[in-house]
């Protein structure tokens, strides 16, 4: 039976993959800007507030969850992220907070943080402009995507933990996942909020049919073999948390090794029709963790 979303909502614009100019595999040469990607397709959609969703979604079953979870770090401390000392401080102090959260909420036996990004929106530019200008500024990701499929998830673990350690962990546990914990920094989100895509109304959803791989070339610093851009489907349900505060987080699955669960949650920043023209720019931090389970639940 199809899920009919109810509760508080907004309207806005999401941007999605719309094919390639030559019908071939999508690519982007980040050195020259050459690409066969067609311009992204703009979709006007209704986006429902997760806080009014009934029943409240849970990370294990639904692939995403919103909850209050204050941090001991201040805005000023987060904003030192560009310095070596600031990066290390976030790893030393913030990562353990999220390890505890994930272990409590998921029932996992081990959680290993391995990557963070702090996105600091630059007013006056669309996020794609910053990307193609290669300024080094981390903008909201404006194309709806899934961070990982099985190939990139394994690649991440091998690179971050070493192939031997990765094999040991996979062999020692019945299941593993990558979970992203996303938090605003400084003020509630008022511009380019994060949305997640609930795809439960799309039967037999799968990566080959519902996502497109986009390969980057000539970018030695990029850490993935490819990106997974979401293809549009009329039955998707779009969800967000209205004015998410720095005392709250959105958790969502980047990947799950169990094939009968939500294996990855599509997400991206969207242009909220109700955002004020002079809304303050968005600041947010996301941390990814390898998560290991000793049961099949």
Automatic annotation (TrEMBL):
GO MF, one example: oxidoreductase activity
NCBIfam families associated with the record: CmcJ_NvfI_EfuI
Family: Belongs to the asaB hydroxylase/desaturase family.
Name of the protein in its database record: Methyltransferase
Organism: Talaromyces rugulosus
């Amino acid at each position: 039976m199809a899920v009919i979303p109810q509760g508080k909502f907004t309207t806005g614009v999401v941007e999605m993959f719309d094919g390639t100019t030559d019908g071939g595999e999508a690519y982007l040469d980040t050195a020259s800007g050459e690409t066969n990607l067609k311009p992204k397709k703009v979709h006007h959609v209704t986006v429902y507030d997760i806080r009014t969703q009934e029943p409240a979604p849970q990370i294990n079953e639904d692939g995403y969850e919103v909850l209050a979870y204050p941090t001991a770090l201040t805005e000023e401390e987060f904003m030192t992220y560009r310095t070596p000392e600031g990066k290390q401080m976030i790893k030393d102090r913030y990562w353990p907070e999220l390890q505890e959260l994930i272990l409590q909420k998921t029932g996992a036996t081990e959680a290993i943080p391995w990557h963070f990004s702090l996105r600091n929106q630059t007013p006056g530019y669309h996020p794609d402009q910053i990307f193609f200008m290669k300024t080094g500024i981390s903008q909201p990701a404006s194309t709806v995507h899934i961070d990982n499929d099985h190939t990139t998830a394994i690649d991440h673990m091998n690179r971050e933990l070493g192939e031997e350690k990765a094999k040991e962990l996979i062999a020692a546990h019945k299941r593993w996942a990558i979970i992203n914990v996303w938090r605003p920094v400084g003020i509630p989100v008022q511009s380019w909020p994060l949305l997640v895509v609930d795809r439960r109304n799309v039967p037999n959803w799968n990566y080959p049919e519902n996502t497109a791989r986009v390969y980057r070339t000539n970018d030695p610093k990029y850490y993935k073999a490819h990106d997974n851009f979401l293809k549009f489907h009329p039955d998707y349900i779009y969800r967000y948390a209205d004015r998410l505060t720095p005392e709250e987080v959105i958790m969502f699955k980047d990947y799950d090794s169990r094939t009968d669960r939500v294996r990855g949650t599509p997400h991206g920043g969207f242009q909220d029709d109700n955002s004020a023209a002079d809304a303050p720019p968005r600041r947010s931090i996301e941390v990814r963790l390898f998560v290991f389970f000793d049961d099949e639940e």
